[in-house]
Amino acid sequence: MKLIVGLGNPGTKYKGTRHNIGYGVIEELSDRWDIPMKSREFRGLTGKGVFAGEKVILLKPETFMNSSGECVGPLSKYYGISPEDIIVVFDEIALEPGHIRVRASGSAGGHNGMKSLIAHLGTEKFPRVRIGVGAKPEGADLANWVLSRFPKALEDDARSGLENGARAVEVIIRENIDTAMNLFNGI
Q1: What is the DSSP-derived secondary structure letter of residue 134?
Q2: Which residue range is the domain that position 41 belongs to?
Q3: What CATH number is attached to the domain comprising 152?
Q4: Domain total for the chain?
């Protein structure tokens, strides 16, 4: 079984913000795979189904970004899902909108949602798909930047990143992480 986690913040106030692009990928996968997001478990919104012969759980933690591990840790333990079978999708300010990076493991890189996940899972060894949201302008507040929406001129790039993120998750499940890294890193 695979657990696909999209990081973000709950509520309409945050919908469409840079920080919620992980939620956007989960919504895209829910549509593509016809898996409705209708259950609430462990302080998260889930959808269960099958993709490419693999049982999957789609998850949008509703604990707010900085406490994402409080949802993911207990849910993964309950279902017996090991960290290497958890794919986490989240925003990355070091990448321009439309660009993604796939990694098999790694540090939190300053991302508070990832810090929480690593703390609750007890390891950095889980696959992740980072979706570019662009660097904050010089002098801008980071929190305000990631909680802002993409300007009209970047909406197509943001949508491309979201779609590539969903495709990368599909390749990880259908094939493997190495194939996904080869196909998507550099896009």
Answers
A1: -
A2: 2-184
A3: 3.40.50.1470
A4: 1
Among the listed residues 19, 99, 111, 120, the single catalytic one is 19
Are 94 and 14 contacting, i.e. CB atoms less than 8 angstroms apart? no
What DSSP string runs through 65-127? GGGTHHHHHHHHHHHT--GGGEEEEEEETTS-TT-EEEESS---TT-HHHHHHHHHHT-S-S-
pLDDT band at 4 (very low <50, low <70, confident <90, very high): very high
Q: What is the pTM of this model?
A: 0.96
- pLDDT tens figures, 124-157: 999 999 999 999 999 999 999 999 999 999 999 9
Q: Is 120 a catalytic residue?
A: no
Rounded to 10 degrees, the C-alpha dihedral 3/83/123/158 comes to -40
